[in-house]
Amino acid sequence: DTGVSQNPRHKITKRGQNVTFRCDPISEHNRLYWYRQTLGQGPEFLTYFQNEAQLEKSRLLSDRFSAERPKGSFSTLEIQRTEQGDSAMYLCASSLAVGPVTEAFFGQGTRLTVV
Amino acid sequence: AQTVTQSQPEMSVQEAETVTLSCTYDTSESDYYLFWYKQPPSRQMILVIRQEAYKQQNATENRFSVNFQKAAKSFSLKISDSQLGDAAMYFCAYLGAGKSTFGDGTTLTVKP
User: Fold this and answer.
1) Cβ-contact A55, A72 below 8 angstroms
2) B44: closest CA of chain A, how far (Å)
3) pLDDT in tens, A10-46
C-alpha cells in the first residue's frame, strides 16, 4: 500500500471552468476527509465520508463544491465555475474508524491555481 | 463549534535544545482526540503524536512528548534534542465526533 494518493498534484484552470480532483485512500480505511489549505493556514475541514455516506459538510462547501465516494473507495471533489478564491491546496486524508480512532493519513494534496 | 488556537506563529530553537509549541482548544465534547501533525515545506502532512482525551497519561513518541491539561484545554508539544529535520510547520488538531479542526500552525526553525 502506497498510502493516500491524490491526482492531479497540480491544476491550473481558468476562472469559470470546472475541475475535479481524485483521492484514493488507504485500501482498508473507511473514513475519507477533504480539507482546503491556503498558504500559511491550517487545513480547513470541507467534508467527510464514512464508507460511501457523506456524513458532514462544512459551511465552507458552497453549492459549487460537490464530493462523492460512490463505492466507498476513491472519492472525487468537483468545483464548478471556479473562482480565484478557490486557489488553494486541497488535501485528502483517510482513517480507519473502528473502535479507537486512529490518526488520519494525508495525501500530498492537489494544488489548484485559478487564473 | 470546536476551535483550536496556536498562539505562536513562529518559533526557533537551537539544534539539540528543547522547544515547546503551544496549543489550546475549546470544545463541549467529553470524548475526543488531539494530534500534532508536521508539514515540511512542500511535503505531505505526517502525524507526530496523538492523545486520547480519556487518558490522563501524557503521550510520548521518542523525542516528542505532550503536556495535556484537559481542564485547561491545553495540549502543548515538547521536542527534545531538536534536529535540523524537525524544521517544519506544526499543526495541532482536534478530532471529535467525526469532524476535525486544525490550528493555524507554528513554523519551527532549527538553527545549527
Assistant:
1) no
2) 5
3) 999 999 999 999 999 999 899 999 999 998 889 999 9
d(CA A46, CA A65): 9
Chains A–B, number of C-beta pairs less than 8 Å apart = 49
Q: Which of A31, A41, A55 sits opposite B104 (nearest CB)?
A: A41
For chain B, list residues whose CB is within 8 angstroms of any CB belonging to chain A.
Answer: 4, 6, 33, 35, 37, 43-47, 50, 52, 91, 93, 95, 98-105
d(C-alpha B76, C-alpha A16), whole Å: 43
Of the candidates A115, A80, A42, A34, the one whose C-alpha atom is nearest the C-alpha of residue B102 is A42
pLDDT digits (tens, 9 = 90+) for B9-30: 999 999 999 999 999 999 988 8
Q: Which residues contact B89 (CB under 8 A, 6 or more apart)?
A: B38, B39, B40, B41, B105, B106, B107, B108
pLDDT, one tens digit per residue, over B72-111 is 999 999 999 999 999 999 999 998 876 788 999 999 999 9
> Which chain A residue is nearest to residue B10, measuring alpha carbons?
A40
**Chain A residue numbers touching B45 (CB-CB < 8 A):** 43, 91, 93, 106
More confident residue, A76 or A58: A76
